[in-house]
Amino acid sequence: QVQLVESGGGLVQAGGSLRLYCAASGRTFSSDGMGWFRQAPGKEREFVASMSWRGGSTYYAASVKGRFTISRDNAKNTLYLQMNSLKPEDTAIYYCAAGSLYGSSPDEYDYWGQGTQVTVSS
């Protein structure tokens, strides 16, 4: 069992920045893959970024590469998503996820956070 608690979402103007947090607890040793997904109204859930918790390898969607950075703090057992140069099209509910792997498909993940709203105004 893995529990994920997200925070950091909010309202920001285009060009601004936000930092999302995902605190993990429980049997986290069984979940090496950690990822961020987002879902806008009327759209499919979209991969944003992921990483291997142990190895540190990262993977980004083309739409966010160069603007977003995924990272983790082992001591705090926390996953981060630093979002810079935000655009209105980044507006979505953002979800933290954990699983055995760190692929781009939601099917790779077994545990999910509650989601946090990110709204970028133009």
**How far is the N terminus from the C terminus?**
40 Å
Determine Rg (CA atoms, Å): 13 Å
Overall outline? globular
Instruction: Classify the secondary structure makeup into a structural class.
Output: mainly beta
User: Taking all residues together, what is the mean pLDDT?
Assistant: 96
Number of strands: 11
Poorly predicted segments: none
Query: How is the main sheet built?
Result: 7 strands, mixed
Helical proportion, percent range:
under 10%
User: What is the H-and-E element order?
Assistant: EEEEEEEEEEE
Strand percentage lies at: over 45%
The total count of helices amounts to 0
Walk me through this protein's architecture.
This protein is mainly β and 122 residues long. It is 0% helix and 54% strand. Strands 2, 4, 5, 6, 9, 10 and 11 form a seven-stranded mixed β-sheet that branches. It is globular. The mean pLDDT is 96.
